[in-house]
Write a structure and sequence with these properties.
The complex is a heterodimer. By secondary structure, chain A is mainly alpha-helical. Chain A has a single domain (47-251), classed as MetI-like (MetI-like fold). Chain A has helices at 12-39, 49-81, 86-100, 104-118, 126-152, 155-163, 168-198, 210-221, 224-253. Chain A starts with 11 loop residues before the first helix and ends in a 7-residue tail after the last helix. By secondary structure, chain B is an alpha/beta fold. Chain B is built from 9 helices and 10 strands. In chain B, helix 3 (100-111) packs across helix 4 and helix 4 (116-129) crosses helix 5 (145-157). Chain B is globular and about 55 Å long. The chains are: A mainly alpha, B alpha/beta. Chain A binds chain B through residues 154, 156-157, 159-167, 170, 174-175, 178-179, 182, 253, 255-256, and chain B through 54, 56, 75, 79-80, 82-83, 85-87, 89, 91, 93-97, 106-107, 110-111, 139, 141, 152, 155-156, 158-159. Chain A: GO terms for molecular function: transmembrane transporter activity. Chain A: It is a multi-pass membrane protein. Chain A: Keywords: Amino-acid transport, Cell membrane, Membrane, Transmembrane, Transmembrane helix, Transport.
Amino acid sequence: MLIALWPRHWSRPQRSNATLVAALVLMVFMLALLGQILSFFPEPIGSNAQAFSDGARTTLWLTLVSGAVGLVLGTAAALARTARWIGLRWLAGFYIWAIRGTPLLVQILFVYFALPVLVPGLNLPDFAAAVVALGLNVGAYNAEAIRAGLLAVPRGQTEAARALGLGRGHVFFDVVFPQAFKISLPPLVSNFVALLKDSSLAYAIGVVELTNVGNRIQSATFQPIATLTTVALTYLLLTTLVTQLSNAIEHRFDVEGRIQ
Amino acid sequence: MNAPTPYIVAENVCKSFGTNQVLKDVSTHFNTGEVTVIIGASGSGKSTLLRAINRLEPHDSGIIRIGGVPVTDDPRTLQQQRCEVGMVFQQFNLFGHMNALDNVALAPRRLRHLARAQANEQAMTLLRRVGMQDHAQKYPWQLSGGQQQRVAIARALAMAPKVMLFDEPTSALDPEMVQEVLDVMRELARGGMTMIVVTHEMGFAREVADRVLFFDKGRIAHDAPPAEFFNNPGNDRIRAFIGRMGT
């Protein structure tokens, strides 16, 4: 959407950079001004605008931190699954199997309630527990998205790089990863958007994020339609901005001009 | 005239894929400054020998020496050897996310730690040599097959190799693009480059090769200078093969 705004004679990198900057600025503005904007809304939104705004900020923060954890974990697990050493492949396979086979809500409850019992002294605060559970969860899905990208890079690419005398590190970082990342980007973005919405489950362990805020106001004011619609629209606004960012990144990497 | 010095030596090289033995006790040598053309039916082991020389396909037994040093998995000597041996592939294998210039400049930047400007300048010289200077900023998908292969040759030359291996460099090309690639290879041969070329281009073999090897079922069935090879084939299988290739 944003990409179409720029003049047609701008080059592809110029347009994608402009989109990236615009989307980031919009996101910061939105977070800063959400409270003020919502305060103009009729009751019961107006009087609770600050609570909504804080909730949205917590949701985005939760998503960004666990998304970063998930990206690192996912890359590590994808590499482990394609490693030569069978122990690593087995470990990564077990992680993906266990996480994808159990509900996210159970994982969040497990990290918050069961982990302190299993490991005495490891009493994570609610936000940290949510980050651990969400990061572990999205990491497993990211691992498969990244593995798909790694496997989609033709064998001839690594052979050509090795034949030039490039070492393992250079073959991976200069040749394989940039091409794999481009292929993995759309599924990674899907995972990230899903994470933004799934972060609402953190409300089960008392994290005061957007859904939790909405639900509290809803039960206090008996006005479910207004409050829940506001919650839903705020999520929609956040996912729209995230999608603009990812579109810009995708466009940046599209040297073949295949994205119309 | 000086006696030719063997630069690459293969002794009793064997290689199997599962139960299929593709190289059977292959022993031969390649001299400095010579152009060797390897021909033979597909599956006869000619590409596998090339790929064993730079260890893309490790051999099972026997020894391959490059300049006297055995080819092994030791990372340091292997990297050194791969820099001395350039390789050109049937499917070009240009890096799709880089333009032609970056494709050529990558290895010198990473392995010789050249600054970008210096590496680009050197890459431009190589692109000029293969007639691709006007396409330096283009990505592989914007180039024709013949153009891609010429960039791939420039890329293989970037580390200043002493030997160039060509693995069926024109087999994936439309007929009208074959000549532009062969012209570049002819130019290289004229400059004294040591070359080992797996190809089905009999005209190129006749004209440019110092020596023709015929592979048959994993063995070197015939080894002769081109004039003798084509005018007086060693046996009926070779005669039949040359006949099928239409020269």
